[in-house]
Amino acid sequence: MLLVLPIALLSAPASAAKIDDQFRAWLAQDLWPAAQASGVSKQTFDAAFAGVSPNLKLPDLVLPGQKPTTPKKQHQAEFGSPGSYFAEKTIGAVTSGGRARAGRHARTLAAVEKRYGVPGEVVLAIWGRESGFGAAKMPYDAFEVLGTKAFLATRKEMFRKEVLAALVMVERGLVARDQMKSSWAGALGQPQFLPSSFLDHAVDFDGDGRADIWNSVPDTLASIANYLVHYGWVPGRDWGFEVTVPASVSCALEGPDQGRGIAQWAAMGIVRVTGKPFPAREAKAEGFLLMPAGRSGPAFIVTPNFYVLKKYNESDLYALFIGHGADRIAHGDRTFAGSWGRVGGLYRSDIASLQRALEAEGYDVGGADGLPGFKTRRSIGAWQEKNGNAATCFPDRPIVEALR
Q: 374-386 vs 348-360: helix axis angle to the nearest 10?
């Protein structure tokens, strides 16, 4: 063992060195020609990657010679028990901070809403969630993150697009190279935009001639609103309403492709938890059933604006956090009427196995990625109903075992 240990210790740095050599070859032979075609100079390119090596500690990487696998655990917070995503410590900081800034930036928020039609409380909730109103530190070098992921990540093409967009940002003088600090996912500035989103949606709202999502509050708030408008925000509509869903309404009716008039949902027995009727303007419009924990949590009728919020982060829980947080900023800190059950204890690999089993039986689960999105939830409900069981529409250990 004493002889084997030094050999094992020496092999890891050698492997890392080999990956670094491969990374440098990839930069020169693959990424540089693409950057040059995008109008990036060699000087900008070399400065961006000077001293940069692949960060092998980042999640969701596939090292050379390996095959992609579903990780046992998930790095994203929304993968755990849905209720934990709405811990009062987290959402309370966003809502109290949002209310404090609603007064401080009232004139800017009013101007943003007038131009873009997005309520100030929605913009504040996103700002607070994404960067703690600009207080969160971005510890990573953006080119290290984006370069590593474009070279090694499971979604190489996505990050290739983003690293090229980051190079264009620097080439155009929109941001200095040393200002390119990011999250572990490569997101930038106070709105946490990926570089392509910066190029497409960042705006100069303070009139100084440049879009500055790092230091300018007006630019940050307007850029968030502009992003939502680009993806179809409908002025004058709510994001959604918490409701009670009777047992006679199947939880398998969930999803943005199963919409119906909100008045129709009401006629099926779905009522708001407040006891108030749906607003007249909403009752005439389309709505969608959302049950993020199936029968083990609060239920909602949401509008198309909910799915616009999802464009900011492809997570039902994220969009729900923003909508709920915005309501609390505007109307006070009320919690959900429905309670979250004890769900969410499975590994991501368990859910991926369940998804593959459902796919084999002909269900559309939205891909076997180990994440229990609405297609997986409603497929579980449909499978349960087909097999004579009460539909819960959420993965649990007995369902995983039954489908093995």
A: 60
